[in-house]
């Protein structure tokens, strides 16, 4: 398997993930759900304008996502990625997901480009806290410090990405020899641009996606399978290749 050979020769690796890596945990991808929630387009719920107009509507959407994510379990793809970190101590997971499943599977170095469902930030004073209570005691939640509305600490359409995290991800991409691109349609920017950065800096791109993504043209290898099937097989093959060398 060419992907395992590429990985076995690499010193530094990045795994870049999107909603597809959590699909087999039962969490719908945006495009998979037709981009709709209760008849609203997701782009109309996940924006600062929507929150200003109707914070309760926005919170009902996030309360539902928190409930689903809490019930979900990491799948074999998340677990294989966590196992890969043991083979590559320098491995960085760069994710567009907000569900926390990589961390629950045991990945230690996870850069969350789009924030987390499990953090909440005051829209007035900016105070941010971890909060994994499901359900939350009141919606929308109020800030203890200033009494303002709190919002999910996720990146909404039209908002900038957290700068320090993006820079760290960019650095990991420029240094990577191999990048695994898993379960992303590659159409959400600037996140998708990180795959171009890695490719331009010499990383071999391995795409794992049952459908070729918008980034497929960058891939040296395409594995047209579900992440939960492809990644455990890839890790197993890599261990064999490494074992044969030792
Ligand atoms: P997307 O919905 O645009 O694309 C999902 C991709 O995953 C598609 O290319 C699809 O072919 C692929 N896919 C589906 N099932 C798969 C599987 N079993 N294995 C491998 N690939 C599979 O998602 P995106 O690219 O992440 O971009 C959309 C935005 O949606 C992101 O900003 C992300 O923050 C957000 N989002 C996150 C979650 C989550 O945290 N679980 C869920 C939905 C959306
Ligand atoms: Zn506050």
Structure description:
This protein is an alpha/beta fold and 246 residues long. It folds into two domains: 1-26 and 74-114 and 161-246, Rossmann fold (3-Layer(aba) Sandwich), CATH 3.40.50; 28-71 and 115-154, SIR2/SIRT2 'Small Domain' (2-Layer Sandwich). Helix content is 37%, strand content 18%. The chain contains nine helices and eleven strands. The strands form three sheets. A six-stranded parallel sheet has the order 5-4-1-9-10-11, with helices on both faces. A three-stranded antiparallel sheet has the order 7-6-8, covered by helices on one side. It has a two-stranded antiparallel ribbon with strand order 2-3. Helix 1 (2-8) crosses helix 9 and helix 7 runs parallel beside helix 8. The longest helix is centred in the C-terminal third of the chain and has 19 residues, at 227-245. The two termini are 19 Å apart. The model has no long low-confidence stretch (mean pLDDT 95). Nicotinamide-adenine-dinucleotide (NAD) is lined by residues 18-20, 22-24, 27, 29-32, 96-99, 114, 183-185, 188, 208-211, 213, 226-227.
Features:
246 residues, alpha/beta, Rossmann fold, SIR2/SIRT2 'Small Domain', 2 domains, six-stranded parallel β-sheet, three-stranded antiparallel β-sheet, 9 helices, binds nicotinamide-adenine-dinucleotide, binds zinc ion
Topology, element by element:
Elements: H1 2-8, E1 13-17, E2 36-37, E3 40-41, H2 42-45, H3 48-53, H4 55-71, H5 76-87, E4 92-95, H6 101-105, E5 110-112, E6 115-122, E7 128-130, E8 150-154, H7 163-175, E9 178-182, H8 193-200, E10 204-208, E11 221-223, H9 227-245
Helix pairs in contact: 1-9, 5-9, 7-8
Bound molecules: nicotinamide-adenine-dinucleotide and zinc ion.
Nicotinamide-adenine-dinucleotide is lined by residues 18-20, 22-24, 27, 29-32, 96-99, 114, 183-185, 188, 208-211, 213, 226-227.
């Amino acid at each position: 398997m060419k992907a395992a050979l590429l990985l076995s020769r690499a010193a530094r690796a990045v795994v870049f993930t999107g909603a597809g890596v959590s699909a087999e945990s039962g969490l719908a991808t945006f495009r998979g759900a037709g981009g709709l929630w209760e008849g609203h387009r997701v782009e109309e719920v996940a924006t600062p304008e929507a929150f200003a107009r109707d914070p309760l509507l926005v919170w009902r959407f996030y309360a539902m996502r928190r409930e689903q994510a809490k019930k979900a379990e990491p799948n074999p793809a998340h677990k294989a990625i966590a196992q890969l970190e043991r083979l590559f101590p320098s491995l960085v997971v760069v994710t567009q997901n907000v569900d926390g499943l990589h961390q629950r599977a045991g990945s230690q170095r996870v850069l969350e480009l789009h924030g987390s469902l499990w953090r909440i930030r005051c829209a007035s004073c900016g105070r941010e806290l971890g909060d994994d209570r499901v359900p939350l005691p009141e919606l929308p939640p109020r800030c203890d410090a200033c009494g303002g509305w709190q919002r999910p600490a996720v990146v909404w359409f039209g908002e900038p990405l957290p700068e320090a995290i993006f820079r760290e991800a960019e650095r990991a991409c420029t240094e990577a020899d191999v990048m695994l691109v898993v379960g992303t349609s590659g159409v959400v920017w600037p996140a998708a641009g990180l795959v171009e950065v890695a490719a331009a800096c010499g990383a071999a791109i391995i795409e794992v996606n049952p459908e070729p993504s918008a980034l497929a043209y960058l891939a040296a290898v395409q594995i047209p399978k579900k992440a939960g099937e492809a990644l455990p097989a890839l890790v197993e093959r890599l261990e064999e290749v490494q074992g044969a060398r030792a």
